[in-house]
Amino acid sequence: MSEDHLSYPIVYAEWDILNNLVGDLSPSSIFVIVDENTSRDCYPLFQSKFDHAHQCIQISAGEQHKNLNTCEVVYDQLLQFGADRHSLCINLGGGVIGDLGGFCASTFMRGFDFIQIPTTVLAQVDASVGGKLGVDFQGVKNMVGLFNHPEMVFMDVDFLKTLPENELRSGYSEIIKHAIIYDHKLWQELCSTETWSDNINQAIIQWSVDIKSRVVAQDFKEGGIRKILNYGHTIGHAVETLSFDMEMPLLHGEAIAIGMICEAHIAWQFGLLELSALEGITEYVIGIYGIQAEYLQDVSKIMDLMKHDKKNKGDQILASLPTQIGDCTFDKAIDQALVEKAFLYYRNQ
Ligand SMILES: NC(=O)c1ccc[n+]([C@@H]2O[C@H](COP(=O)([O-])OP(=O)(O)OC[C@H]3O[C@@H](n4cnc5c(N)ncnc54)[C@H](O)[C@@H]3O)[C@@H](O)[C@H]2O)c1
Ligand SMILES: [Zn+2]
Q1: Fewer Cβ within 10 Å of end Cβ, the chain: N or C?
Q2: What domains appear along the chain, each with residue ranges and CATH number?
Q3: C-alpha 282 to ligand 2 mean position (Å)
């Protein structure tokens, strides 16, 4: 079990602890939410280890289904299967299942208990920790949602064995992010292996989760330090959104990789970050994600998208910028001139 920075346990691969907790909760009924991929790839392992009778609810995979229509499907099934306020929901899947399943469990009959079992790297090190739940609405990500805690987050790296390599690599960028904003030692560890994929193991996942938990525990509602988790995401989100209309949309972590380099460059422009640290970040990140300069062509559209980031205040675009590897500041106002210089730097790698 991990250090307890939050009010709920985060458990790694110890299925007895999960089974015992569920026994202690003694829910009136148990629902396991899956999508077609986690039903095929993750449910067999779950079923072989989980001791309690349950009912599966399957939804369609993908961000395009993370909406209120899918919630209705889930509510409908919960009603049909006779769920009540003492039921338990187990969300077995990536961030989409976790956010949507947690939202449904928190709202159906004003909420019943739920457990997160994240099965992607991104969901393990990021989405399942921190209590943010919700769905997209009218094309805006995570527009409708709430903060709520699960009874437990349970992870097993064995689930990751079936994850496609591009999804593994995408999720890995959040691990890199955690190292850059918070932990120089983790950064050194990441850089010490021959390939990035050597770092997809329980020790590193646990380390990364611990960082996120520590940050969130200090600032649950994101009034201050929690914002450092947005490093790479001010530019990265805009680039990701723009890429949805392109031939090859970027995965979230691929866009965040671009964002991390560009925002590190902006930190350097401000004199916050030393050149050697900027170069270290650039070299490592490009070594894994390559250079995707074609996604940075339309600076004005990217600026427009950044202006609509819900983390801004007034007209200012605010970013979280690293001050050294292992430390980060937040609420720094950035403008188009800084962004253009950063893009130029990225393109010239
Ligand atoms: N709540 C938060 O704090 C938070 C933080 C970051 C991201 N998110 C959300 O997380 C979502 C993205 O999460 P994601 O990247 O996990 O996406 P996802 O849930 O869409 O999963 C990616 C794909 O992998 C499949 N999959 C999942 N586990 C698998 C496995 N073990 N083997 C094979 N295939 C598997 C899924 O079916 C899906 O097709 C976004 O909606 C984002 O908003 C939330
Ligand atoms: Zn992210």
Answers
A1: N
A2: 10-162 (3.40.50.1970), 166-347 (1.20.1090.10)
A3: 18
Whether 127 lines ligand 1, by a CB cut-off of 6 Å, is: yes
Give the position of tokens 């970050």. Answer: 273
d(CA 114, CA 96): 15
Q: 328 and 320 in contact (C-beta within 8 Å)?
A: yes
How many angstroms separate the CA atoms of 271 and 275, rounded?
9
Which residues does residue 333 pair with via DSSP β-bridges, in sequence order? 318
Structure tokens at 26: 């003694």
Please write the tens of the pLDDT for every residue from 119-136: 999 999 999 999 999 999
User: With a 6 A CB cut-off, is 174 part of the ligand 1 pocket?
Assistant: no
Ligand number nearest CA of 96 is 1
User: Does 257 score more than 60 pLDDT?
Assistant: yes
Give the residue, out of 141, 142, 167, 169, with the most ligand 1 atoms within 8 A of its beta carbon, to mutate for a pocket test: 167
Evaluate: CB of 38 within 6 angstroms of ligand 1: yes
Residue with tokens 């605010």, as numbered in its chain: 318
Tokens of 88: 């338990």
Task: List Cβ<8 Å contacts ≥24 apart for 244-248.
Answer: 246/294, 246/295
58 lines ligand 1 (CB under 6 A): no
Residue range 166-202, pLDDT digits in tens? 999 999 999 999 999 999 999 999 999 999 999 999 9
Q: Whose CA is nearest to atom 41 of ligand 1?
A: 96
Smallest CA separation from ligand 1 atom 27, residue: 94
**pTM value > 0.90:** yes
**Which secondary-structure segment (H or E) carries 288?**
helix 275-289
